[in-house]
Automatic annotation (TrEMBL):
<dbReference type="InterPro" id="IPR000182">
    <property type="entry name" value="GNAT_dom"/>
</dbReference>
<keyword id="KW-0012">Acyltransferase</keyword>
<dbReference type="Pfam" id="PF00583">
    <property type="entry name" value="Acetyltransf_1"/>
</dbReference>
<dbReference type="InterPro" id="IPR016181">
    <property type="entry name" value="Acyl_CoA_acyltransferase"/>
</dbReference>
<dbReference type="InterPro" id="IPR045039">
    <property type="entry name" value="NSI-like"/>
</dbReference>
<dbReference type="GO" id="GO:0005737">
    <property type="term" value="C:cytoplasm"/>
</dbReference>
<protein>
    <submittedName>
        <fullName>GNAT family N-acetyltransferase</fullName>
    </submittedName>
</protein>
<keyword id="KW-0808">Transferase</keyword>
<dbReference type="GO" id="GO:0008080">
    <property type="term" value="F:N-acetyltransferase activity"/>
</dbReference>
<feature type="domain" description="N-acetyltransferase">
    <location>
        <begin position="3"/>
        <end position="131"/>
    </location>
</feature>
Length: 131
């Protein structure tokens, strides 16, 4: 991939929901562009024709701790190292802005991806609103 992953890459409101749907997630159209205003920073990558093919972000108070979320790579570009490069870029930015801790949750099938990307496994919990 010739292009480089960029921090706070300019992204149109419809692009991330489209990518979310391509990877099999709910588009969450209502989250954009508000997410860009509320997260600490994001990273993205476009393919040579300009389509957004990778995205992820870190949210939090921006003091000591951040939470990494929505790490996604377009299905046609998976298994090429883009995901790990995306996580690495997000963690480099965390270091640059002096975050000391970055956490995330992930499906257990992605354990090796995140441990190879520098994360240590730990226990945690999850709360979901009951509809």
């Amino acid at each position: 991939m010739e292009q480089e992953i960029s921090i706070n890459l300019p992204i149109e409101s419809h692009e991330v929901p489209k990518l979310r749907e391509l990877v099999g997630w709910d588009g969450r159209h209502a989250d954009y562009p508000m997410l860009f205003e509320r997260c600490n920073y994001w990273a993205g990558l476009r393919e040579t024709q300009g389509e957004l093919i990778a995205f992820g972000y870190v949210a939090g108070m921006g003091l000591q701790h951040g939470y990494m979320e929505d790490i996604m790579v377009h299905p046609q570009f998976q298994k090429q190292g883009i995901g790990q490069a995306l996580v690495k870029k997000l963690l480099q930015e965390a270091e640059r802005i002096s975050l000391e801790i970055v956490t995330l949750t992930f499906d257990s099938k992605h354990t090796s991806f995140y441990t190879e990307s520098g994360f240590t496994l730990c226990s945690g919990g999850l709360w979901r609103r009951q509809d």
